[in-house]
Amino acid sequence: MKKIIISLLLGTLFISCESDDINLDPHSAYTTIPSSLVTNAQKELSDYVNTPSVNENNFRLTMQYWQETTYVEESNYNFTNRNVSNQIYIDNYVNVQNSLVQAKKLINDYQPVPAEALTWPTTKKNQLAIIDILQVYSYQLLVDTFGNIPYSQANQLGSNVAPVYDDGAGVYANLISRLQQDIANLDVTGGLDSESDSFSSADIYYSGNLAAWEKFGNSLLLKLGIGIADANPTLAQQTATTAINNGVMTSSADNCLLQYLSGSPNYSPIYENVKANNRNDFVGGKTLVDYMNTNSDARIAKYFKPVGSTGNYIGQAIGLPASFANFSAPGDFAYTPTTPGILMSYTEVAFYLAEASARWGIGGSAATNYANAITSSFTDWGVTSSAAAYLAAHPYNSSNWKQSIGEQAWVAMYNQPLVSWNTWRRLDFPALQPAAAATISSVPLRMTYPASEYQTNGGNVSAAASAIGGDLLTTKVFWDKF
């Protein structure tokens, strides 16, 4: 399968592309091999999920983990000056989805040589399943961020420049269905080398390991189920039960990560924005720093740097400018170019298991899953020895499980802010207050639609805005019921 599966150096792969039309990326070389398109899509997806760039991903600010030092517009929820929503659309629809759509086309059009006749059907099925799992992941991000989105008519590569917006609840239901089919299509027992049966080293998340993809797929299915727990409890429980029974992540060895490299342009996007750009734009947010100080949380030494020689951790009030020297900078992980990008972690999954246990009594003991999640977080940050004492001081509270899980997931998801934002909106803990100079009455509950969509797809985006109750930062997405 050498014509399809080719290992390429990261530095030669990644295509920079930008377009206001979410269905058309005129700068991408879509005549290339599918494996390079998949690699590019994976890199772009990880970059978006992990970057702290104020131009595209401000959720470390929204979740009050960090605070801007000088330009505090984004901390106060002004996302229009930088056209942040436009960039989120480009990141997902253009850089990720269009690459994956074209990779599917190339795979479907490929005619195997005689020597590949026996193995190609299995390889093709596995490759298409992996691509579709990545698409499901990206589409869930978009629904969770905006609500109704272009879906059924999106990414048609120029044939439809004005896609309709689909109902978010319907998109979720479809994502669940297609993900279950993707997982079923993965042939992890085909008798051949699982790496050569997929994308091999061109898969920069799991190196073609199909068993790992199956576990990731089930974990993503659990995430989808938990996501709609309040909006559609029946489908949510069915989905979560299926995922758990089929096998989700069981340790950090299962994490879905992108291992960044030491040199540009393939170093961590956190490092790029915190260190490589030679700017001191971020310090710790007072909300999180104070919480960790009050609760003697050993992870604080990993999350942040102490101020000067004082040994003290100090965060700035959310929404106010800050002198970099007077507040705690992000920890060493942010100044390390090879810090991995996290797509999904076992810590995250363990919190979902705790929530499934609390809601429906499935997946084991809620207290055990809660403890596993917190312990996993301490272990991932290199302070395992402090986990037991922290758990003793913060036991699971079955009478207010939303607060127990919500607050501890908020702390643990420090480096997964998109996950944290979802969990906070669903469980309503911790009780975050809006930023100091915010012009809205709450922490943002969604992102508004891009200005580019109003310019190029005005009728459809206006209809979507009306359908969800207004294109506002304070409009709840369909699953945010309380």
UniProtKB/TrEMBL annotation:
It holds the Pfam family SusD-like_2. This is Starch-binding associating with outer membrane. InterPro entries: SusD-like_2 (IPR041662), TPR-like_helical_dom_sf (IPR011990). It comes from Chryseobacterium takakiae. Coiled coil: none annotated.
